[in-house]
Amino acid sequence: MTSQQATATRTRRGAPVIVDVEEAEAALVENYPHLVRLAYLILPAGLGRHRRVMNAHTLVQRALPRSASEPDPASLGVPGPRGPVDRSYALMRQEVLCAALAFEQEEGARGWLRKVATGVLPPHVWGLRLHPKAGGTDEAALDRALAGLDAPARAAYALLELENLRRSDGREVRKLLAAADAPDPRAALKSAEAVPYGLLGAGGFDPCTVQARPTDLLRRRQHGRAGLIAAAAVAVTAVLVAVLGGGPEPYSAGGPPNAYGAGFLDPAQLVRVDGTAWKRASRVDFTVWPARGGRAGDAKLLGRALQVWAHPGERVAVSATKGTTESLPAQPPQLLYAGDVDAAGVVLMYDGLRLVRYAEPRDGKGGAALDFTRVDGADASTAAVVLGRIDGNTRFLTAPWVTGSASRDLLGPGRPAQKLGRTADGVTDPVRMPGAGSDTSPAGANGPCGTSWPALEFQAAKGVGPGKPFLLTDLGDLVPVHLTYQAPDSATPAEAAGKDALASWARTACHLGSMRGMGVRTVNAWQYAEQPLPEDNGRAAWVCTRADTWTGTNGRTLALFLPPVAEPASPGAPVGQSTKDTGACGRSVPQVLAGVLWKSTAGHWYLLAAGSPDVARIEATGGVSGSAEGPTMAVRAEQGARAELSAVLDSGTGITTLR
User: What is the pTM of this model?
Assistant: First the structure.
């Protein structure tokens, strides 16, 4: 009998569940990035990002059993199929969880000896320091929140987020923690649930997608034959840093900048626009934003920002929205703002394609941040930029053409907007981030919702922009998202400030959390159909939300069913989505079809379906059969029935539901 076929020696409740080594290895390889990400989230932040990356890979690689193994039944408690792949993955997850929780106790000589004994030495990288590619600014706040939790609470949070266990009542998480010998699973779960969720983007905290920076270049050169060359490099670096900032700065890694863009890193070359340029310009975008802020003349602060742009050091968290490069500028950047915002000194620049935000703590303690976001194609509705976030509150810098500013709760469509104060430089009073500090979630399966969803309501100067109030909301990027609304009888989106628009967004806003950190530019809520419900149960609306990004690609579409409700902010039910950019509900493909099983007040089940106004016929096949002429359909069905929907447009073209 080979080791791959050996019988497990451990005894468990019920019939033994055997996983051989080959199955375990296949599950580990297939799920390796997911398991490493799980370990990285659990490991303590005090290790530093490089050591967390290396140790996360080590823990997962050590998880592979040396002989056939049996997963703990608690690790199989999550509903799902029970094939070999699931059993193997459950074992790998359990081993990673146990190792990550025990890591802090194993650190030191005993831990090192155990690593040697298992035959799996930690991966080592010579001359480089690695860290995950930073996501949106929400992830920096999440990192700070996780740093304040103990290991079992971090593990609970990782399981809730990565294993999609939010919909359970916590029993599965507690079982998994108990199987990993966590001391108090119930307390750990409670601590984890206090952390705002939905902030972990698709690529956030991913130790398999890393950035590399040099470490000890000078020391290694000094031990080689290039001592004279190294000394010359030190001299050049010292001269450059002295020119830019008056001496070595704590947040820059130092070193000469690349030849490309090197000439644009002088604070004296920053482009500055006067405060009335927007009134004379043929286009209204970031090119006409003036230089504002109490430290716009602070050459040392500006020099530090530019030097960090060229060479961010270990104490700098660098983030870039999807599709945005972190390269040096191709022309002298334009200064938009430099000043003190709460506890940070902030510099905001624009290079013709991207916004670049540098923030450092005013007391010099802690890390700095360097954020990049693509904003090509900005217009008058791009009227605010995030200057800083602290304690769940955000301050924005508003465009010079904004004449009126207010804060509106999207979940209270009947409540008036509240005036939002601004300084003479256009900096707003603190605005609560959507979902921040909330411990409730009325719905919103894809992100935090809570009891309110703040939005900015701006009025632009006469002759600029849409001519009516427009709404923006914070989804974690530097630039808030422009919200629009499209009525059933309209061919184009309009501003979302009207009565019907606010009523629709009150039931849609909770689902915006699924779009955090994606570099979204606009989200349009298109109420594409209304339908009388069977048995005189009132009328339902169908809404398709379309998120378009600054890159013009990777958009997201979500269809919602809005039955009659007593509470105006009761979220609609998701009935279809497309994470691959098919163009549905957008300018290129202005059609949509979706369906849902619905139960009447009398207890009867129906298959409901609705398409865009140009749908001529809908047909259901499979578990439910039926058809209807026109853009809506209602067919009697059984509970749990599954059906395939298709439709034919007026043009004769066929479409199917969102996928």
Answer: 0.65
